[in-house]
Amino acid sequence: MGVETIAILMPGDMGHGCAIAFRENGFRVVTTLTGRSARTRGLAETAQIEDLESFEEVVKQADLVLSILPPESALAQAKIVADAMIATDRRPVYADCNAISPGTSQQVGAEIARAGAVYIDAGILGFNPVKTKGRTRVYVSGPDIAAVQALDGKGIMVHSLGTEIGRASAMKMIYAGATKGTFSLHAAILTAAQAYGLTEDYLAEIAESNPAMLAAMENKVPRIPLDAGRWLGEMNEIAATLAEAGVTPKFHEGAADIMAMADRTPIASETRETVDESRSLTTVLDMYVEATRNRSDAAE
């Protein structure tokens, strides 16, 4: 079966970027926005995604379903789509592109198998395809990955990791464990420096000894709250991935704590479209310190 219509559930920052790239490459893109936020609806409109009335209509019309949403919702989303497939007796290919552990991916795959559909384990690396100009990498694994492989060079780059479900998710977790794990470590250290009144001296030292690390801190740390609510779940999935491999999960359990802290700041109520870009790093760190103190006060 060829792929002509792609369903994206749900069109957030990554999803709507994928939709734009796919439409530019001749694919029809659909979703269902029932119960979705105003921001998601706005992004879907920007990407010109067709809004169908239900999940049943999505599976009736789609050849390929891409699940792209916060990791804690991945399994519930798969159950909803599997039920819709059974109700309509139509079974498009289902690819889970979420930041989930191999174990969670296998659970998602079991739901899709319950409906009798093909399941593809997938992991997206990088920013959305509009920002990367088609260089976003999608790793896939599973017994039948042809539907996603058909998208290679058509808005994204697709790389196969073999037939085993979970390998693509593991790749995503390992990559994000290094990148976002590092962001969270920088945030933790800078927050401690701010609490001790050492930020100016610490940044001066880093500027002298490791300017590349300073640039990464200044670029990433102030923006963590914009995604912290979603990344908190991702850190938990990374921790589970490491535990499944026999490696300590404690680094990323701590990273989840940092994401929770960032999610308590006022910046968390902003979006990538509305964020105040003029804030200084020290202003953000003051918010982090306050969020840390608020949690301590609540625990007493």
Task: Report what the structure shows.
This protein has two domains: 5-165, NAD(P)-binding Rossmann-like Domain (Rossmann fold, 3-Layer(aba) Sandwich), CATH 3.40.50.720; 170-299, N-(1-d-carboxylethyl)-l-norvaline Dehydrogenase, domain 2. It is 56% helix and 12% strand. The chain has helices at 13-24, 38-46, 55-61, 74-88, 102-114, 129-132, 146-149, 167-195, 199-209, 211-220, 224-244, 250-263, 281-299; strands at residues 5-9, 28-31, 50-51, 64-67, 93-96, 119-125, 137-141, 157-160. The chain has an eight-stranded mixed sheet, with helices on both faces. Strand 5 (93-96), helix 5 (102-114) and strand 6 (119-125) form a beta-alpha-beta unit. Helix 8 (167-195) packs across helix 13 (281-299). The model has no long low-confidence stretch (mean pLDDT 96).
Helical fraction:
55-70%
Number of helical segments with 4 or more residues: 13
Instruction: Return the string of H and E elements.
Output: EHEHEHEHEHEHEHEHHHHHH
What is Rg? 20 Å
Overall geometry comes to globular
CATH H-level superfamily title of the largest domain: NAD(P)-binding Rossmann-like Domain
Distance between the termini: 60 Å
What is the oligomeric state here? Answer: single chain
| Contiguous runs where pLDDT drops below 50 for at least 5 residues | none
Total number of domains = 2
**Strand order within the widest sheet?**
3-2-1-4-5-6-7-8
CATH class of the largest domain: Alpha Beta
Please identify the structural class as seen in this structure. alpha/beta
**What is the number of beta strands?**
8
Mean pLDDT: 96
Largest sheet: 8 strands, mixed
Strand residue content: 5-15%
The second-level CATH architecture of the largest domain is: 3-Layer(aba) Sandwich
